[in-house]
Amino acid sequence: MLMSGKEYLASIQDGRVIYIGSERVDNQVTHPAFRNGAQTYAAMYDLKCDPANRDLMTYEENGERCAMYYLQPRSQEDLRRRNRAHRRIANFCFGLLGRTPDAIAGNITGLTMKPEVFDSEPGGNKTNLLNIYNHLRRDDIFATYAIVPPQSARNKEYYSSQGLSQPALRVTAEDDKGVTLNGMKMLASGSAYAHEVLIGNVMPLAPDQKKESITCVIPLNLPGLSLWSRQPFNREGDRVFDAPLTHHFDESDCMLVFRDVKVPWEKVIVHDNPALSRNIYVQTPSHVMANHQCNVRFAAKLRFILGTASLVTQATGARDIPVVRETLARLVAMEAGYNAMIDGQIEAWLQVDHGYALFNRRYLYAAIHWAMENHSPVMDIVRELMGGGQFQFPASIDVIDDPELKETFESLWTAGAFGAVDRMKLFKLAWDLIGSDHASRAMSYEKLFVGPAFAVRNYNFINAPWDEFHSVAEDFMATYGTQEANTASPGKPRLNVAG
Amino acid sequence: MLMSGKEYLASIQDGRVIYIGSERVDNQVTHPAFRNGAQTYAAMYDLKCDPANRDLMTYEENGERCAMYYLQPRSQEDLRRRNRAHRRIANFCFGLLGRTPDAIAGNITGLTMKPEVFDSEPGGNKTNLLNIYNHLRRDDIFATYAIVPPQSARNKEYYSSQGLSQPALRVTAEDDKGVTLNGMKMLASGSAYAHEVLIGNVMPLAPDQKKESITCVIPLNLPGLSLWSRQPFNREGDRVFDAPLTHHFDESDCMLVFRDVKVPWEKVIVHDNPALSRNIYVQTPSHVMANHQCNVRFAAKLRFILGTASLVTQATGARDIPVVRETLARLVAMEAGYNAMIDGQIEAWLQVDHGYALFNRRYLYAAIHWAMENHSPVMDIVRELMGGGQFQFPASIDVIDDPELKETFESLWTAGAFGAVDRMKLFKLAWDLIGSDHASRAMSYEKLFVGPAFAVRNYNFINAPWDEFHSVAEDFMATYGTQEANTASPGKPRLNVAG
Amino acid sequence: MLMSGKEYLASIQDGRVIYIGSERVDNQVTHPAFRNGAQTYAAMYDLKCDPANRDLMTYEENGERCAMYYLQPRSQEDLRRRNRAHRRIANFCFGLLGRTPDAIAGNITGLTMKPEVFDSEPGGNKTNLLNIYNHLRRDDIFATYAIVPPQSARNKEYYSSQGLSQPALRVTAEDDKGVTLNGMKMLASGSAYAHEVLIGNVMPLAPDQKKESITCVIPLNLPGLSLWSRQPFNREGDRVFDAPLTHHFDESDCMLVFRDVKVPWEKVIVHDNPALSRNIYVQTPSHVMANHQCNVRFAAKLRFILGTASLVTQATGARDIPVVRETLARLVAMEAGYNAMIDGQIEAWLQVDHGYALFNRRYLYAAIHWAMENHSPVMDIVRELMGGGQFQFPASIDVIDDPELKETFESLWTAGAFGAVDRMKLFKLAWDLIGSDHASRAMSYEKLFVGPAFAVRNYNFINAPWDEFHSVAEDFMATYGTQEANTASPGKPRLNVAG
Amino acid sequence: MLMSGKEYLASIQDGRVIYIGSERVDNQVTHPAFRNGAQTYAAMYDLKCDPANRDLMTYEENGERCAMYYLQPRSQEDLRRRNRAHRRIANFCFGLLGRTPDAIAGNITGLTMKPEVFDSEPGGNKTNLLNIYNHLRRDDIFATYAIVPPQSARNKEYYSSQGLSQPALRVTAEDDKGVTLNGMKMLASGSAYAHEVLIGNVMPLAPDQKKESITCVIPLNLPGLSLWSRQPFNREGDRVFDAPLTHHFDESDCMLVFRDVKVPWEKVIVHDNPALSRNIYVQTPSHVMANHQCNVRFAAKLRFILGTASLVTQATGARDIPVVRETLARLVAMEAGYNAMIDGQIEAWLQVDHGYALFNRRYLYAAIHWAMENHSPVMDIVRELMGGGQFQFPASIDVIDDPELKETFESLWTAGAFGAVDRMKLFKLAWDLIGSDHASRAMSYEKLFVGPAFAVRNYNFINAPWDEFHSVAEDFMATYGTQEANTASPGKPRLNVAG
Predict the structure, then answer these.
(1) pTM of the full predicted structure?
(2) Phi, psi of B345 (to 5 degrees)
(3) Paired residues of C148 in beta bridges
């Protein structure tokens, strides 16, 4: 059953423990660091409930409306339906929220499209998986994930030799009811706002890391679990005008700290199997399903970047200078090319097991790779287009609260037809997109959210049909030997290649 | 009616005048510079005739089989049919021939999909266009084009002041039968092999260049017309082994020199209208239809490059070194992304006038732009992967004709399981792909065949929905004013953006 | 006479008017936004006074010690002396302050090295210039500059047609004592801390902008002058640990707003001469002298970036991974190359008029161009090396004030031999270098402080010896005609090129 | 005693064995493939003999004039003398010959500047080294080198298991007189023209490769030694006009094949010591001395590229288009920066053992790295500036031998003030610089002549003062702890960093 925004806000006030440095956050829905973000997610729930969006954002299953992002696709058209729903959400937040509810939903839906992988090795639990999926879908749950060990966990010998507890999350006890977890997991973006979190391992574990292979989906308010937030970007008293994107779209990033957290067995989907805990993402459609949402989100962001950049050049009067126009043209060629890469995933869709349909895997990894490599350069170009524009404006729009300052501001900062306030509004927006703390965090996020560059390249490498590529050249070389001369004698073999 | 390779070879021995420097080429089908290229095109005609390729490469129209590249597409599926035929041809020549028969065929077919453009201004002739199209299609004609003025034509004042004849091709006389042409046109790639050539103007003309606006489709053996070839790359006595790609794929580039060439009216489609002579390409599907072939061709080339590069790293034993593997991964991510951009053009196809279907215009220009920017860097990477490999081999495989040299060669140049001859074969192929004169000509060709970079960027710029992009940012800015503070007061408006 | 840090702090509490948004700053030396910056500049004054640095940072003139950055260089060794003094200051602030006292000092010293330029056209005043220079040098003054019109000033017609006052600073009245100024000038970085400001025009003015050509050096507390600051980055209560660079190095950027500011004639050096107001920088050594300091400053920053990046890779354990080592190697090759470009300016120094010595002009512009193009990519590489490291730490080090949180922090965030606090200290530093608001402002500053990219390229273009370059190719082409064949006949002319 | 060009030509007709494929070259001084190159080297010998160049290109030692490139530098001024002599030679050949006589001369001179390295381990022979150096210097010898094993040598196990002879050059027998060598060495560029060749190992050998560690300097006509050339680029009958750079500057690249070659002990400098055979280059000034010549050579090439590129834009009329001017400005900024990197090596010269002076090591490796990374992009830019220009000209200038073709050529190919022949001359030159086989070989050569990219980066890495870089950040971090707040309390410690 679909939740309204209001129901959603009530549902996340669940007593979860969040720290900002040493400060314990009482209620994220009212705290200045998170309340605006919470409103944004609530608006997103309302968007989905809106009858006007019914066919776009939901589908019917067992007589109930469910969020489209839980749809198991069975045709090219189903892939288009998921794509359109992702697109609507991404446009809503301009691609600035990485962890909207449709993100991890794709991940988990993908797991259910090849559930037998959970039966293929000991420690997997297909039944739990399907029950969890049904619960998420039926109850309109917003799940996030934390699937990487902390950087501090790399040196295991040290901890044992020093008698210290290991930082990486692992099972420290088990009983009839379930497992007990201790340690730390990174990086739960969106965890101030989500209902539940998928705990797991997307990076390969060593065979002896059995206890760290625990994979489960749990509520964020479990006793013993605390969320350690990085520095939030909103502060008491800031004006929306001065940092409008920070205001709405600080999605939060938290380390998850577990102290004797009890997780019942029915929430566990992998246990004591390091290899399986990673393989579930790549041996099922999970990774592809999740990352198609990432592609769509990034495309929405590119549009927003492009619109803002173009408006900035209009405001500075530079848009008609040839080199600026050429720069915008390059950006728009990149934007169109990226969208083409997404649509190509639908045109070249794959028929997979159980009658399911899947986005083209190679095209997806290519698009992820493209975004990872091009986000920073694109942002750098926009920064150059802004010049020093952002530094010429007052520290805050509150200057207009003082009549004398306001008069000076309006007389000196107006530029032809562009009013002082309008210009400042645009440049504050642009700076919040490319230059603020919030923007800078996104610069890093876009680089690493799928994993480090080498991992992204590896996905591309291992999915490439190398034998097919090789045979193109090999078949051609097979058509000639060492002796053929450049003659047109009748007996000379003509090119005859399969191609 | 479809031509066989043999019929094709006979048909191009039509008396056309070709010069290589001061040498007059008697017969391009037997001359060392062109005979191998001619065989390649002949094989391509045979490929199309092959009953096994009937559905892939031809379609039926008025009871006759026609080359698929003359199909006027009326559905997404028709676009796929064209795409597959282009792909077959491109794979056949590894994307190394820019002007295969399907290239200009796309251009002219595109003109016929919006023929009313020819009626929109004086000087256009729709009837002639449709007749020419029917002739090309019905008679299985290979047409090329020459649609750019010579670089020397820029300084018109000079010629009149000096009493010199102008170099740019133009109409110098007219009578009942037709027009008389004099001057020069660049750059007729493939003209040693094609039957006919489209003469026209893809770059804007000035309003006073009426006489240069002549657009027509003519045979390459018209009296008074001569083809001035750039240096051909094949020479008497070369071995295929030493330069296998040069051998098969030197497509020829010729300047066309007109001396009192008479063209009958029925071959003229634009006359005395500078604006129209250019607009026919961009106001009809012509430019998009032609360039989809270019996209497909370049994709085939990328595959060939990638296969060769990967084999080279295998032969040098470097393929498992992490940084090399990472490099191949980047290349393969690029290759997949480029293919996705092509398939995206089909998924996001456009319904255009008269019930015709068209490849997505913005995605197409994005792909063209991508190829233009990335070809050189890709080639440079492959060059780096080869290291000095190509210079360690003998000047020619003819070393093995001498028993003593052969023994030395085989004992010293063999590397483990890779025989000396096999290694040399691979490196000679790779060098012919990235390093030879033939390869270098392609480096320039890929940069300029659609026009200079600024023109390609301009196509992207003018087709972008800027207003839509702007409104994304503008609609967002409309949701807040100067006063909203960072509070969660109940009355505070929530984000409510169309998205 | 050299000032101590204490004297400096006293001297800048001069009643100047600074606004942060609508807030009027009472005293920049005690205000949280500026007090730390002020301390940094004071420490720099103490550094110069330190007897240990006497020979490095000062020289004697007329029996008094003066700051080395006012030295008029008469030999290669004098250039080295200036270089070393700049280097000491740059190292002190890690190149993170763009406007240290030696910056504009170089600019003004450069003007005095060819003072006759001020006599070459009406409106220049050489006597005033030399008196101002002597005052700055003798009184150990810290000057900054503001030499660009506001972006809003481009559309002059609009203002007159609307009866609005023009935003660009100009002379609005004159009398026996001096001129009256109104309008706005951008961008006075460092103006919260400097004593005086050079007002002028580094961008060409139109001939009719006579009144805007005013060039003068004035105290920052003149009545009617106000400084409008961009958002400062320090806030009340922040810990040094959490943002140590922001803490020390927020140099301030202010728009200067003039309301009937009276400037006496003896402070005016150019008046009513648009061309001269710009030419003084490029027709004297001024621009080169000033920008050598920029080069040296950036080199110090590169070292700091490199040291931090390398430590980060040590902390993450990645430093020995081949691809990471290769990345550091690329960075260090860039750093060494950039330093070489600076030292090359001394090796290839120029003898200029009046017996003065000057840094090599072309090499200087080349280094500026290099820095402008490479700063962003370098920063992006460092960002990639950090991965998500910065987000895994608590929002503030104040976590360790709470014993329970401290225990958790230290047990889970410690990584082998690296303590939790030490790791956090390093990552907070690194983030403040590449990711914080402070860091992001620097990203833009490095792009634009010399002017937009096209201006920097233009400096390179106009100083290049094109004729000499052309003659290299032309002289070679003169050695052969159209007929020479590839023969070794005795009469064949051998290569005989001047080279 | 200095040789004249004529003496040089006589001296290299020494019976050496060169193969072009299966063709045995009788006399490289008269063979079409090499005769023009031989003339170029001869002209270079004449240049050095020219009394006008006496002080620039030679110095006196023991009463005899010697080539400057054998000078052991003892001061900054000596470094300048070497630099100027390299520069003269590089300008003579436009940097297009990689192996001029001053190249390996620097290498060997560098070895003699720390000869004790040869005594530091068994197998080194300092006396032989010094004698060889004296011979080369005194007899005005042109030496080249071959110091890399063939790519085929990597898989040693294979050869023994198959009973095949190993391809890598090694000692196969020893006696009183010397060693016997068998196998292959790559890549002896210039070996068709040099007198002697340094055989050695610049890449690390494994400890068990004792027999491959042989390092010696030998004449190129030793019995049993043959030179296997890659495809030469000059062919019988080519006109200079059509490929002027190929004509003069095809320096040759040969694999050296040894069949029972006897080398007397006095020519051996390292024997049976794998580590030493490599360390002699990096533990002495050798590598730095040799590569400074490479820097200077590349700078000459950059100037030639730039002059040609600028002339091409003049000829096409594009030089005043803003984007073209901007492109030339980028190129010229790169050129100036690269020269600055070379001059910086002199300003920051190093005092090394025995009173010798050395170019700055880190700056040198930085310049090598810069050239390796930027050569291809620079060439690609020039290619773009040419557009399709090179393809619009006839295959050969022999068109003007035919009066009728000549008339057509001159009337149509003339462009305003630029005559047809002059335009063609410039474009043929430009194409031979960036696009011909000769140009393409140089593209690869510039990438690999110092070794693969990772090796060049490694030189930069290992010579960087990492501890010094680290301490910059560490010293700063030591100035604050976890508790300091953002206050201006009197007791607050001020920044106090060594800097």
Answers:
(1) 0.95
(2) -65, -25
(3) C186
